[in-house]
Design goal:
With about 475 residues, this protein is an alpha/beta fold. It has 13 helices and 21 strands. It has helices at about 10-30, 45-60, 85-105, 120-130, 145-155, 200-205, 210-225, 260-270, 290-295, 315-320, 325-340, 360-370, 400-420, and strands spanning about 35-40, 65, 75-80, 110-115, 135, 160, 180-185, 185-190, 205-210, 230, 240-245, 250, 275-280, 305, 345-350, 375-380, 425-435, 440-445, 450-455, 465-475, 480. The protein binds S-adenosyl-L-homocysteine (SAH), iron/sulfur cluster and FE3-S4 cluster (F3S). FE3-S4 cluster binds near residues 47, 48 and 199.
Amino acid sequence: MNSVSIPTMEPDRQYYFMNQCKTLVLEKKAALNRPLTYNIQTFGCQMNSHDSEKLKGIMDEIGYEEVDDEAADFVIFNTCTIRENANQKLYGHLGHVKTLKNKNKDMIVCLCGCMMQEPHVIETLKQKYKFVNIIFGTHNIYKLAELIYSYLETGKQTIEVLDETKQTVEQLPRKRKYTFKSGVNIMYGCNNFCTYCIVPYVRGREQSRKKEEILAEVEALAKQGISEVMLLGQNVNSYGNIYDYKDGKIVEVDEKDRVTFPQLLTEVCKIDGIKRVRFMTSHPKDLSDELIEVMAEEPKICKHLHLPVQSGSTNILTRMNRRYTKEQYLALVDRIRAKMPNISLTTDIIVGFPGETEEDFEDTLDIIRKVKYDQAFTFIYSKRTGTPAATMDNQVPEDVIKERFNRLLTLVNEISNAQIKRFADQVKPVLVEEVNHHDASLVTGRTEENVTVHFPGTADMIGTTVDVKLTDCKGFYFMGERIG
Ligand code: SAH
Ligand code: SF4
Ligand code: F3S
């Protein structure tokens, strides 16, 4: 390639590579006399889904057409490694892809995302999965076009995994899943180092985006018809602590220049066209009274808070490095409910953290009974290599964990079933998201509390907010009827 003409500045550099790839894709299409297809399989959390929208934007730009299944000319796996079963899932898919590739020799297989940040994974892939063509991690997804071009030019396995985010490039194409709601990254990475969690190792250090940049993105989304935004970060409550990288180093922002998360929320709510604002995830240790005030007073902020507790035992919480006690968490819930009595609270819980005793587990059941969550995501502790908990003594035996997990599930379901009933017969604004998958005479949407409602309607209602009476509670969701 002619290095003189390659731009060094982003995003120009990536647009250059997108153009180069586009030419090669056109040639290939002409040679085959058919379109070239791609498929992206996304695992993990909302961060990954958001990243996949960026990858799709680039693939579309290059000239590939998206299809629903893995039998495509170009398949991308955007991986997750939060628990061991996430890793196993990928290897399962790779087995399938290998047989597909035997039929379509030109098929390109690309892996990216959190799992690629683990050195032992890269070693395994290099040794046992030589048919994988392109590999990159979480810190350079913006370089997809450049990496594809490099692979197409050399035909050699192309691997680029960086240890940290050196640069973030936002002004690239993006293909959104929905026309009416969108995620917006407000920060990247995590600095909390909960002792069980791999995220800080695979997503790197916490870095907040500048307020102006976020507001400009939300304004642009509102102009394109988006009415609901979800502000995304591993710990949105610590937004604003750290801004930028200068000369490869993270720069902490001066207290006087700091923009807090509630201040950011207030600004986002001022944007015309935005009707609903959500955010994920809140770490309890950083949830301020200022945030509670702003949530209570700002009608655009959905009255739903995902507040992962992880365990109800102060002893376990300490060893998890969560930095709150059972009592502090309960006091926080009281402060939240004092201002917003009907708020929907949801949580994440881990069972079987090393050293968890029956008494510790009882504390978890106790906190669930006290808080009464609308929904709780329950996970069996999974040992992640490289995290402090992986080498802790007293790993809990599998049969004990399974037995606790079942008890936990029974309680959680019982409570969320009872909780959701409080909305029965209420009339709620519902944002319509899709035509019901099982019954085309119904549409499906959500209330601000994130309750799913199915009711008679038509496809033209998608993206609109309508008043719906929640008539019939079916366990985790409602049937309803439109009012007015
Ligand atoms: N940043 C968010 C959580 C992101 S990971 C927060 O701190 O709340 C989502 C959830 O996965 C966590 O809340 C936790 O419950 C679960 N999780 C993380 N690591 C895990 C592990 N090693 N084993 C089991 N569950 C885990
Ligand atoms: Fe993981 Fe804790 Fe960071 Fe959440 S806050 S991503 S659980 S280290
Ligand atoms: Fe998984 Fe990475 Fe999210 S490990 S949960 S995809 S940050």
